Amino acid sequence: MTYAPRTAVPRSTAHVTAPVRRSEQAIKTGAIAATAAFTGGCVLTQFVTVPHWREMDPQAFLQHFATSGPATGAVLFPIEVASVLLLGYTTYTNLRRGRPGRHVWALATASMVGTVVLLPVYFAGANTAMLDPAFPPETVRAELAAWYRWNWLRTGLGLTATALSGVALVTTRVGSATTAR
């Protein structure tokens, strides 16, 4: 008895691709949410916190900063890291798969990486200096003026990353819908 050779029967991959698409969508959404949350924190810091600090008596500011400075960092830093990691993963998967919007995701990621680079470039040293009890009160105003300028750069990078990630998401969706037809 002879048997006919088996031919591969095409299988539906819907059971596999649907959960993958959902998880990728959740990661993209998380990336945008974390980026927007970080940016919101930067905007709040720039428009509310720093002007309040600059109005304070220098000695009172230094006492206040001893708790508010580390608390602000403890809230924003994990969100910043989450944003960079989620954007990085999203960029990697979109670049690897050649999806529309992949270059916009990369620009959004680069903007958020820029916010992290500013930590060792300026913020870590400035914050550590102002946390030092020996920090001279007479230099507080100049340091806060510099902090304010550097924070504009960080806020701008965050706003850019937020806007670009929104554009990237729309571009990815529109491009995916067009190629699925």
Q: How would you sum up this structure in a few lines?
A:
The protein has 181 residues and is mainly alpha-helical. The chain has helices at 14-55, 58-96, 102-131, 140-180.
Secondary structure layout:
Blueprint: H1 14-55, H2 58-96, H3 102-131, H4 140-180
Description:
The chain is mainly α. The chain has one domain: Four Helix Bundle (Hemerythrin (Met), subunit A) (Up-down Bundle), CATH 1.20.120. Helices cover 84% and strands 0% of the residues. It has four helices and no strands. Helix 1 runs antiparallel to helix 4. The longest helix has 42 residues. The chain starts with 13 loop residues before the first helix and ends with a helix. About 3% of the residues have low confidence.
Unreliable stretches: 12-16
Number of domains: 1
CATH architecture: Up-down Bundle
What is the ordering of alpha helices and beta strands? HHHH
- Percent helix, as a range, is over 70%
Structure class: mainly alpha
CATH classification, class level: Mainly Alpha
Helical stretch count?
4
CATH topology: Four Helix Bundle (Hemerythrin (Met), subunit A)
Distance between the termini: 46 Å
Please tell me what the overall shape is. elongated
| Mean pLDDT figure | 89
The main sheet comes to: none
Radius of gyration: 23 Å
Which range does the strand content fall in? under 5%
Q: How many E-type strands?
A: 0
